[in-house]
Amino acid sequence: MRIELLKNEMIKSKADGYLISNINNVFYFTGFMDVSDATLSLIIPLDGEPTLLVSPLSYTAAKDNALNCLVNVISTEKKIIDKLIKKIKLNNLKKIEFDTLPTPMYIELIKRLKGVKITPNQNSIWNLRRIKDEQEISFLRKASTLADIGIKTGIQAIKTGVKEYEIAAEAEYAMRLHGSEGTAFDTIVASGPRSAYPHGVSTNRVISKGDFVILDLGAISSGYRSDITRTIVVGTPTQKQSKMLELVSRAHQKALECIHTDINAQEVDANAREVLKSEGYGKQFLHGLGHGVGLDIHEPPTLSSRSEDILKKGNVVIVEPGIYIVGFGGVRIEDTVLVHKNYGERLTQALYYL
Ligand SMILES: [Mn+2]
């Protein structure tokens, strides 16, 4: 079914073949997930059966799990290229599109396939992947529930004297215990002045009274990723801290209220940004409002001031406004959100303040 939809995209761009090397794309079209550093290739001729080329170590798993394609075992990268060239010639393909290719492979293909046009076209696949179907939405719901468990557990572990990585460990363990296939990305526990780093990772810094603590994490379910951030203050917040928390939650709420089908992503960003700007914190909101999520943690559509995307029913996006003050600290509130016709539904549901 998904392969047929990709073939429709190929017809639109006048391609007669599509070459996939990204493991998440292979999973999307065949249901087979290879290891993250796998060299593999799925070739889809417009007329003809798709063939998946995998390494000997992945062969049995691919045979058992890959649907809608033949599976061939290929022992080296050189042999993948030889086999691809054979298939391309056999099917007489003249315009092949691809998602991504290792540079040596691309150069080799160009060199040996004179007269064949080989061009990147990721949009064909993103046009499909950016709209989630019912099954994908159920996996994203599960991943979001697991992230809620992680955030609650992590927040309970926050107290003075504890190290950031200990909080990350507790949160990750809880998600794993409830069935997460891993973490959606490296868990961030950024405390004190480090909370002003938007990508703060987790260090051995010891939590102390008065710290902001940003906890940003995600889970994986059936390959699909979730993302949530909560910020807390250890002890009683100062007036400035309370103000920052309140503003960011208002910006977050504002974004959720305006999300619906056919709104420009740019407008959602602008609405949330305006809340922070109006109180003098516009410059401290360092990044875009958010991005799509699914098998990858960053996908289209993008919610930012430069985005040309338009939201559609079935998009799943991250909404993550924040304020970052160098040397002082930061606040971010983030949820994974499903776009409906008339509203945005929070799939991650932990309370803003716990
Ligand atoms: Mn996040």
Descriptors:
single chain; 354 residues; binds manganese (II) ion; Creatine Amidinohydrolase; Creatine Amidinohydrolase, Chain A, domain 1; 6-stranded mixed beta sheet; 2 domains; 37% helix; 10 helices; alpha+beta
Structure, explained:
The chain is an alpha+beta fold and 354 residues long. The chain folds into two domains: 2-129, Creatine Amidinohydrolase, Chain A, domain 1 (3-Layer(aba) Sandwich), CATH 3.40.350; 134-346, Creatinase/methionine aminopeptidase superfamily (Creatine Amidinohydrolase). The chain has ten helices and 18 strands. The chain has a six-stranded mixed beta sheet with strand order 4-3-2-1-5-6, sandwiched between helices. A three-stranded antiparallel beta sheet has the order 7-8-11, with helices on one face. A hairpin with a 6-residue loop joins strand 12 (290-292) and strand 13 (299-303). Helix 9 (239-258) runs antiparallel to helix 10. Residues 216, 227, 229, 334 line the site of manganese (II) ion (MN). Residues 216, 227, 229, 334 line the site of manganese (II) ion.
Helix content: 25-40%
How many strands?
18
SSE arrangement, N to C: HEHEEHEHEHEHHHEEEEEHHEEEEEEE
CATH hierarchy: architecture of the largest domain: Alpha-Beta Complex
Multimerization state:
single chain
Basic shape: elongated
Task: Summarize the structure in short.
This protein has 10 helices and 18 strands. By secondary structure, the protein is α+β, with helices and mostly antiparallel strands.
